[in-house]
Amino acid sequence: MNADTLPVLFRAQADRFGARAAARYKKHGLYCDLRWDEYGDQITACAAALAQHGVQAGDRVAILAENRHEWLVADMAILTIGAVNVPLHAPLSPAQVQYQLDDAGVRWIFVSNSSQYEKILRIRANLPNLQGVVVFDDGSSAGPISWRGFLQQGRNVRCRLQEELSRREAHLTPDDLATIIYTSGTTGNPKGVMLTHGNLFSNALAFTQVSPFLADSIFFNWLPFSHIYARTVDIYGALMRGSTLCLAESVETVVANLADIQPTNFSGVPRFYEKVLTAVQHDDDAILAERLRAVFGPRIDFLGCGGAPLPLAVAKAYYNAGLLLLQGYGLTESSPVISFNRKDCHKIESVGRPIPGIEVRIGADGEVLTRGPHVMKGYWKNRQATTEALEDGWLHTGDLGRLDDDGFLHITGRKKELLVLSNGKKVVPSHVEGLLLADACIDQVVVFGEGRNFLTALVVPHWDNLTHALSLHASPAPQTLARDPKVRTFLEARIQQALTVVATWEQIRKIVVLADPFSVARDEMTVSQKLRRSVIFEHHRRELEALYHD
Question: Whole-angstrom Cα distance, residue 253 to residue 20?
Answer without folding.
Answer: 26
